[in-house]
Design brief:
The protein has about 400 residues and is α+β, with helices and mostly antiparallel strands. Helices cover about 30% and strands about 30% of the residues. The N and C termini lie far apart (about 100 Å).
């Protein structure tokens, strides 16, 4: 009987020890709670009396949680979702060739991590005007998606059919740039125009469409736009092309459809079809990058723009006789009224005609074809304005899309 008592005593001792340990654990909790409560009261008193020693630490936590919530949403286009800080290549189905091979409009979307305007770049609306394709390639190579503040939609080849056959037009001989805004059930050109307006123009704030000369003609790098509209003029000035021409809207053109949609667009011309003109490509690339910098999308170093000239009217001088044409005034040359622009000879060297400028101005384009018929367009001269236009922001009502490019 006596041998069973010691274990009971040990159990009691164990219980006491456990109780003490429990008490030991609880004591610090009570103490720390008291200290926290005292600290809160102390902080409240200091805040009330105007002491701000603890103030800087207060907003720190909310800022962190707020930055997580404000992550930029993905960019949705044609059933694709582009995450912020990424670039994605995609294809918009157009239809099939007669062989059954599918044809699609290629796009590259660069979606920045920061908020900003949406800008589209397009080229090769005329399939043989390939200079803009190279401009877009160089611009995209300079963009960094994580640091971009906004979104760039690039459509380097809009007229895929013409691009593959080195043809200005589509297979049905329609001009895509006379088919906007298009129709979902119209001709091939109309369907492509409709797709472009629906998926690209509708999502963008600003557009830059890139062209070259056509039909064996070359163009001085130039912008064509409405210089009386302040948002357009401001972007044209930032682009920094050698000359900006106030051009009227043409029925069925992408520019007309874009303006009617309340968006801002610049049309760039430079070089000739089926060729890479280094001067025109350099002017177009730096001009696009300057516009992106101005809109706040990028901070890319570009060479300073040279003096930009402005014109409201242009005219072509035409061949007075058929024969062999030799140019006397080259691209970008300033000419005076009556100055000789070209001479036409017969195959034996006899002078058949001398083509002279109708007015003072600058040569902005000319034919590259030596053999000409009477009436062919030879040299394109723009009259120059005496003063640089000034943007008047009160002259027109600003559209919602133009809000993105208002001066800060």
């Amino acid at each position: 009987m006596t041998t069973q008592k010691p274990p009971a005593a040990k159990k009691a001792t164990a219980k006491k020890t456990t109780a003490k340990k429990g008490a030991t654990r609880k004591a610090p909790a009570k103490g720390s709670a008291a200290k926290k409560s005292a600290a809160k009261k102390s902080t409240a008193k200091k805040t009330t009396t105007g002491t701000s020693a603890a103030a800087p630490s207060e907003p720190t936590a909310p800022k962190k949680s707020r930055s997580r919530k404000l992550a930029r949403a993905p960019f949705e286009i044609a059933g694709h979702s582009v995450t912020a800080g990424r670039r994605m290549r995609m294809e918009l189905p157009i239809g099939n060739l007669m062989s059954g091979t599918p044809v699609a409009l290629p796009l590259i979307v660069v979606h920045g991590k920061k908020d900003g305007p949406v800008v589209w770049l397009s080229a090769a609306i005329h399939g043989d005007e390939i200079g803009g394709v190279e401009i877009i390639r160089q611009v995209l190579a300079a963009l960094n998606a994580p640091s971009l503040a906004g979104t760039v939609i690039a459509a380097p080849v809009v007229n895929v059919h013409g691009f593959n056959t080195n043809d200005r037009y589509l297979p049905d001989r329609r001009d895509l740039n006379r088919s906007f805004p298009g129709s979902q059930r119209g001709s091939l050109a109309s369907r492509i125009a409709y797709l472009f307006m629906k998926e690209i123009v509708s999502r963008a704030d600003v557009g830059i469409d890139l062209h070259t000369g056509s039909d064996l003609r070359t163009n001085l790098p130039q912008l064509r736009c409405d210089i009386d509209r302040a948002p357009t003029l401001q972007l044209a000035q930032e682009f920094g092309a050698p000359i900006v021409i106030d051009a009227s809207l043409r029925d069925g053109s992408l520019r007309q459809a874009t303006v009617e949609a309340g968006k801002t667009m610049l049309l760039f011309e430079g070089g000739e079809a089926s060729r890479f003109d280094p001067i025109a490509i350099a002017a177009g690339t730096t001009g696009v990058l300057r516009v992106l910098n101005h809109l706040g999308l990028t901070e890319i170093e570009t060479p300073p723009a040279k003096r930009t000239l402005y014109s409201r009217s242009t005219s072509w001088s035409r061949a007075s006789n058929s024969g062999i044409m030799h140019l006397d005034a080259m691209l970008g040359e300033l000419v005076s009224a009556g100055q000789q622009l070209a001479t036409i000879y017969d195959p034996f060297g006899k002078v058949l005609g001398r083509i002279k400028s109708k007015h003072d101005g600058i040569v902005i384009g000319h034919t590259q074809r030596p053999l000409v018929n009477r009436g062919d367009a030879l040299s394109h001269v723009a009259r120059l304005l005496n003063e640089v236009p000034t943007p008047d922001w009160d002259a027109h009502e600003i559209t919602p899309a133009e809000e993105a490019i208002l001066p800060t």
